[in-house]
Amino acid sequence: MAGTGLRRPKMRCCPKFPSDALSGGKKAPESTDILGVCRARRPPETSIPCRTMKVLYLINQYPKNSHTFVRREILGVEAQGIPVVRVSIRPSTEVFVEDADREEAKQTQSLLANGAKGLLPSMLAVLLTHPLGFFKGFARMLRLAKGAERGLGVHCAYFGEACALLRICKKENVNHVHVHFSTNPPIVAMLNETLGGPGFSFTAHGSEEYYRAVSLKLAEKVNAARFVAAISRFGRSQLQLFAPPEIHHRIHVVHCGLDASFLEADDVTPPSGNHFLFVGRLCQQKQPLVMLEAAALLKNQGVDFHIDIIGDGELRAAVDASIAHHGLESHITLFGTVDGAKVRECILKSRAMVLPSSAEGLPVVLMESMALARPVVTTFIAAIPELVRQGVEGWLVPTGDANALADAMKSALECDAAALERMGQAAASRAKARHNIDKTASLMADLFRQHAG
User: Fold this and answer.
1) Domains, the chain, ranges and CATH?
2) Per-residue b or e along 5-25, where b marks 16 or more CB atoms closer than 10 Å to that residue's CB
3) Which of 137, 186, 398, 432 suits a disulfide with 221, CB 3.0-4.6 Å?
4) C-alpha to C-alpha distances, 222 to 183, 209, 243, nearest whole angstrom
5) Rg from Cα positions in the chain
6) Can you give the pTM of this predicted structure?
7) Mean pLDDT over residues 277-299, rounded?
8) What digits encode the pLDDT tens for the residues 81-118?
9) Cα 181 to Cα 179: distance, rounded to the nearest angstrom
């Protein structure tokens, strides 16, 4: 694909509905696993030649400025020779800062483009053309609603969305549905399959899904999916808690990928200046207020430093207040939401990235900074230690500890040029080796070909 750095291999194909083909058109019997979750017995996985295959990507809201990793994966899968249909449950309301997201928006269909009332024609059409599937899907929806975080009314909306999704799958000749994030979209995909649509898989990012696993019905989602992608080994270990051992092999580690603009970037030595960079949503999970506490400690010690903050969110007012309270106005620059070019410019200007998160999957911004040869100051939570090793690619501190964070930032400032360059080169090598979009897309394409239907 021109301009993406992605290679297009020969297309391999799978049947549209291999489970039906292998079972003579009969539904596979259901069984109950050790968790008490009802799931269908699947026939042995195989590959049956066919003319083409097509995957539908389902996301709660797409495109989004913060979801560049989803866009990269979609483009990468297409470069592998698999057409992708983009579907967003809710219309995206963001003001895009990237031209690539504007292009994606033009190609994306929305299930709720006409609001909840717009789902009624789809529900009626499915009732008239697939009555058995309609009632099976409705019964499954009732079971899923019991004890779920959202009530029956919301699950009825999921059912309507599944009916709308089924019509798109039929119209577009979709072989497989893949979902990003394991909140409500996998429920829609699961109901779509029960109605008569293709099978589904999903990528779990964490960490929210793991904290709310019971109310989000994560066990049912894992058991029903053809396969599940975890973005880290830590994520896979959490998902395995909700799946019986005999299906652990269906949970795969698939890293988020960086594209050619990062993979082919020259390793630029970190500058000798005193700039740090924070990129992330201003929310509790990212802990910007803890970073400002650490900044206040550095200021009180007479340390010369500056932090550029990129991002916006519900804590923006609290961040402004903290900057004023600690007298940090000359030490902090707030940029708000910016495009990728500006983020890259700020990364290259910085000595190190700072991200003191308390809840994460595996932050893409850490991968991007490391790929541009910047060490990072971050927390040893979730999957972050899989990417960042203490003293090798950066500094790891306990979450919520402003004193430890201040000490690590001071160490980064006092680090001599040779050591800083050595850490930056180690960071670039590690990020590029582990987060290559070509490898990610190739693995996803192989999983789709194996499980489509």
Assistant:
1) 18-257+437-451 (3.40.50.2000), 260-434 (3.40.50.2000)
2) bbeeeeebbbbbbbbbebeee
3) 186
4) 12, 12, 7
5) 23
6) 0.85
7) 97
8) 999 999 999 999 889 989 999 999 999 999 999 999 99
9) 6
